From TrEMBL:
Entry EC no(s): 2.7.13.3
SMART domains on file: HAMP, HATPase_c
Record lineage: Bacteria, Bacillati, Bacillota, Bacilli, Bacillales
Main location (coarse class): membrane
Bilayer-spanning residue ranges: 20-47, 315-339
Coiled coil (UniProt feature): none
InterPro entries assigned to the protein according to its UniProt record, in alphabetical order: Bact_2-comp_sensor_kinase, HAMP_dom, HATPase_C_sf, HATPase_dom, Sig_transdc_His_kin_internal
Organism of this sequence: Paenibacillus medicaginis
Superkingdom of the source species: Bacteria
Gene Ontology molecular function terms on file: protein histidine kinase activity
Protein name listed in UniProt: Sensor histidine kinase
């Protein structure tokens, strides 16, 4: 499949580049695409960086101003909870409220005055510690009511313990988290914060009562309304201990906390950092209050920040595409006007190359193309006679070759004659002779079948017949062993390639060894290469002879010597069929000669 795709791509490339007009169009189109693409990419990155910087600057200033208002809002809570000048009166009323009705009225008036002073309070509770009793003021049916109740579980509440243990005698309780316990019979769906203030005895510093203020979410909304939240943006309001008092996405807060992102927020600073949340990448801006340490955190998706840059880039691509189409049309028209005379000249040159010696190119104008056409016509006129004469000489040469071939023995006639001899030998019961003649006939037929590439199994069958004839000559002096992998029997190899290597062993080893030799024919797959080798245990080659054989592989074919023609011929065929990846390697020493033929799998056009 990759080869087919590469071939199709190569074919398309060839069709595009075979005409000059296509080359010119391709050249100018590439320049236009490069310029427009480069400008678009550069402008995109510039706008992208500016978008990030503007987002950081605007968000930082916005969070700073809103957080200052938020801290003022929180400080007002603390000021409201302090009895100030009426402290002794309030403390006395708390101590005597169960025995003195006027003390109850003092508490009632005190709670009402605080409730009336603000419009963002849902309710106020005054919990008397030693009596486990509480007073509450809230709005019921358009009237402000003060009620009493008892609850012995209040000291077990987390917010109570935090307020009592606080050195500042106060605690902020978030109502944004689900299932938050408050200990009082109050619905807090529309509240976001509870502020608890501990009132202590001046003499003993023991807690006498706890004031609890429950603030409506409308107050937070009024303060944070100046923070723009676009689609995909998020906003978190965290207390000094990173407890969320507001979050538009609880799951996002949980992931940020789990990833340790909240630990990067520094007290008293403005800043930002990048956070990767799955497939979404955020620019997290934050501001921490200088006094109370309240934190505003705004994660903004980078895709929102880059939206302007992306829109600009898309428009640039659209405008560049229109510009490219117009430019291609203009370039095509101009290129055709330039290349049309060249096309006419090319047509006449094709006619001339195909044997039409009367081809003549039209000449118009005095430019370079006209000059070329004029000289082409002169060349045709001057070479017409020479080409005709050369053509006649070639015909005469071919006729001479055909007549010489007629004088040679027809291989097919020889093959048929050998078959007739084999038949007569069988009739006379000369079976050994018949087998030899039949093997010779099959060998001759295989040698003249005209195929350049054959399967390895066919080549090995041919080698068997060839070695059978050689064994009739050398007898037991010739021993052959095969080490051929079964998976390589269907490998396509050059015809007579293995025979060439075997002949080399017989000629240079067996004929020089009276006691005989052993020839090993082997094949194995190593990586992407098939390694075919023929080894013998003959006397080997001398270093001088080995150097001559290897040097002959690098010589031009016309410079070959007859002594190396077999191996050089095989090496040349391998290079032509498979390219430079194929090779013929020779290793020799006193123990014998080993010749290895390297064939790349899939490396040649015919493999």
């Amino acid at each position: 499949m990759p080869k087919r795709g590469a071939g199709a791509l190569s074919s398309i490339k060839e069709r595009i580049t075979q005409r000059l007009v296509n080359k010119l169009v391709l050249l100018f189109t590439s320049i236009i695409v490069l310029v427009v693409g480069s400008l678009t990419v550069i402008s995109y990155h510039i706008v992208e960086n500016e978008s990030v910087e503007n987002s950081i600057a605007s968000t930082t200033n916005n969070l700073l101003l809103v957080n200052q208002n938020l801290e003022d809002y929180v400080q007002e809570m603390g000021q409201l909870a302090l009895p100030q000048l009426r402290y002794n009166e309030i403390m006395s009323a708390i101590l005597d409220e169960d025995q003195d009705y006027s003390s109850q009225m003092v508490i009632d008036t005190y709670l009402r005055s605080m409730f009336y002073s603000r419009n963002d309070l849902k309710a106020i509770y005054l919990y008397i510690v030693d009596k486990q009793k509480y007073y509450t003021v809230s709005k019921e049916a358009n009237t402000i009511s003060v009620r009493q109740g008892f609850n012995e579980d209040i000291p077990d509440q987390d917010w109570y313990e935090s307020a009592v243990d606080s050195t500042r005698n106060q605690a902020f309780q978030s109502l944004a988290l689900p299932d938050t316990e408050i200990g009082y019979p109050l619905e807090t769906e529309d509240c976001f914060l509870a502020y608890h203030r501990v009132l202590r005895s001046i003499s003993s510093r023991e807690p006498l009562a706890v004031l609890s203020f429950y603030y409506k979410d409308a107050g937070r909304q009024e303060i944070m309304k100046d923070i723009p939240v676009a689609e995909g943006d998020h906003l978190l309001l965290l207390g000094p201990d990173d407890v969320p008092f507001y979050m538009d996405d609880q799951a996002l807060y949980a992931r940020m906390r789990q990833a340790g992102m909240l630990d990067q927020i520094k007290v008293g600073e403005n800043g930002q950092f990048t956070w990767q949340d799955g497939d979404e990448k955020y620019l997290v801006n934050y501001n921490t209050g200088e006094h109370e340490g309240w934190k505003l955190v705004k994660p903004i998706p980078y895709r929102s920040i880059y939206e302007t840059a992306t829109t600009t880039r898309n428009w640039s691509y659209a405008i560049g595409g229109v510009f490219l189409i117009v430019a291609v049309i203009l370039v095509t028209l101009t290129s055709n006007a330039i290349t049309r005379p060249l096309d006419r000249l090319s047509l006449q040159m094709k006619r001339f190359s195909s044997g039409d010696f009367e081809a003549e190119a039209p000449v118009k104008g005095n430019d370079e193309i006209a000059y070329l056409s004029r000289h082409f016509n002169e060349m045709v006129e001057r070479t017409n006679d020479l080409i005709n004469e050369r053509y006649k000489m070639k015909l005469a040469e071919k006729n001479a070759i055909l007549k010489a071939l007629e004088a040679e023995i027809n291989p097919h006639f020889l093959y048929n004659a050998l078959q007739a001899i084999s038949t007569q030998a069988l009739k006379r019961e000369m079976f050994d002779m018949a087998d030899m003649v039949d093997a010779l006939a099959q060998t001759l037929r295989y040698s003249i079948n005209g195929k350049e590439m054959v399967y390895a199994r066919d080549e090995l069958s041919h080698i068997e017949r060839y070695l059978g004839l050689q064994k009739a000559r050398f007898g037991s002096r010739l021993q052959v062993q095969y080490q051929w992998e079964d998976g390589l029997l269907d490998l396509l190899i050059p015809r007579l390639s293995i025979q060439t290597l075997v002949e080399n062993s017989i000629k240079h080893a067996l004929e020089n060894m009276p006691e005989g030799i052993r020839i090993v024919i082997a094949a194995e797959l190593q990586g992407t290469q098939a390694l075919i080798s023929v080894s013998d245990n003959g006397p080997g080659m001398s270093p001088t002879r080995l150097k001559e054989v290897r040097a002959s592989f690098d010589e031009e074919w016309e410079e070959r010597e007859s002594g190396n023609i077999g191996l050089k011929n095989l090496n040349t065929r391998l290079k032509l069929l498979y390219g430079e990846e194929a090779a013929l390697e020779i290793r020799t020493d006193a123990s014998g000669t080993h010749i290895k033929m390297i064939i790349p799998q899939g490396g040649g056009s015919r493999v």
